[in-house]
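Posted in: Structural Biology > Protein-Ligand Complexes

Title: Requesting predicted complex, protoporphyrin IX containing FE in pocket

I'd be grateful if someone could produce the 3D structure tokens for the following input. Sequence and ligand are given below.
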Amino acid sequence: MTLSSTFDRRHGCWQVQHGPHPAHRCRIQGPPSALFAWTFLPKTRSPGISLNFRPRRVHFTFRVNMPSFGHLHVHWTVVVAVLLLLLLLYVTAGVVYRLYFSPLAKFPGPRLAAATLWYEAYYDVIKGGQYTFKIKELHQKYGPIVRISPHELHIDDPDYYEVLSSRTSPRNKYQYYVDQFGLPGSSFSAVDHRLHRLRRQPLNLLFSKASIIRLEPTINSIIENLCHRLDEFKKSGQPVPIRLAYQCLATDVVTLYSFNKSWNYLDDPDFAPNWCETVKATADMGHTTKQFPWLFPVLEALPDSAVAAVFPGMLLLLNWRRSLAAHIQKSIDSNAKGEDIGGELPRSIFQSLLESNIPKEEKTLLRLTQEGQVVVGAGADTTGNVLTITTFHLLSNPDILAKLRKELEEAMPNQFQPAKLSVVENLPYLTAVVNEGLRLSYGLSTRLARIAPNEVLQYKDWAIPAGTPVGMTSVLMHHNETIFPDSYTFNPNRWFDQPDGGRALERYLVSFGKGSRQCIGMNLAKAEIYLTLATLFRRYNMTLHDTIRSRDIDLKYDGFLPQPGPESRGVRVIFS
Ligand code: HEM
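-- Reply #1 --
Done. Output follows.
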């Protein structure tokens, strides 16, 4: 009998024609090993094959004689065993290379971390955001430079931060790190320093100090929106979930500046808890998606209901991306029609990007949506976190609070007048408070790796090969007891008592990172922080409600953004 077979894509199986009539067509089903043999080992379809089937039935059983090499009959278990052996050899050779022959083999660190990325995955994915703390322990054991993975080094030496995060020498990012957000189109994820410069250059102007000063009335009007909401809580005596409120403030500012249309989350009666959960879930998922970056395309291809069942955080993220894409599409449409949707407002970020002379392929909806996700996401939770941590420490330290209030009363005689940035950012005690708040809120709790693509970096006696990712972490910097003694205590005097007002010490304050990849939103974030703290602490009396430092404030896990433990009830404040 002559057999001909074709692969039926629709049903995902082989069809065999075993006679001239269409009724002689059958679908092959069988154990995976036999299907594998049929598909990939064409010899099995040679006359050596024998089939038992019942014509006219779609499903039939069959038996495959496994491939024959001359007189040798090879059973499928042997094929699988050989494949497994090859895999084992490959893995062993890889581990031996990593441990003994890699250019990083000479660096100190645990052998297991040098052998496999599963070491990091164990601490971050399985134990949940614990690698930052483990890295600290590794430094205590192995010294200031440690090999923390087969490919990456970590340094704990505050004086090295500015060398690593250079502004003048090229610094690439680490593909493994940026993959965690699946946003290759953003400036944040531009691995190569030249592509990064191309993307960042049109944004620089929009986030310059001068641009942020133009934005000051807008920021103040959104702070007034917050105050209206706080007045409602003041009347009712209900505690305010302050982190949510601050995050809504930061989101309203950044979305207004991005799209000329604020998302007005401050108007939400509960301060948009779903939005705050979205940002947290997106950042939290980073540990998993860093290890398995293919998850993004797979989950994006699945129906929402399936994603929600497997990865609820991912669904929040996908919905956020869709809504961002809709906002950016509006900017693209109005730009195409030559409309100016901003009115009195300064040019929005995305209008300006569309009008800039970056190449056309950098103006696609997909790329701009990815840039939008970074700008909105980066602008919301980070700023909200600094404001929350600073508020908590001020309310827990009556002496510090009294000193701050005195300075504010003198600088702002009318408590209901909007704060002026030029005044408040020059207040020495407020500046010390802001610096201390930034220090204890860390910015990002994960390490930021930089790569010198063409330069051998020298750290003490160690020559770091060009192209090696080297990370440093703000959490370790900010708790360096030599630079910040008694580092867990909120003490603005460590800045205020310095003869230069703490300027020199700011070298070690790295919440915004440093160098060419430093946070682009730093001027905006600082303006929001100064104006909000000055307005609220000048205008309101506040007390903490059921808030405990060890439960609700202290860093317990690195979710990219610093997070307290799962038992946290958040910081709640009563206004009077
Ligand atoms: C207190 C608030 C903020 C903190 C602590 C902070 C911290 C950081 C840090 C540490 C980085 C570097 C990340 C890395 O190296 O991978 C970064 C990057 C970035 N931040 Fe911020 N950020 C804050 C506020 C903002 C705001 C308000 C915006 C925008 C509205 C913003 C937009 C960005 C962008 C676009 C990047 C990527 C920059 C680049 O790669 O060139 N951030 N931020």
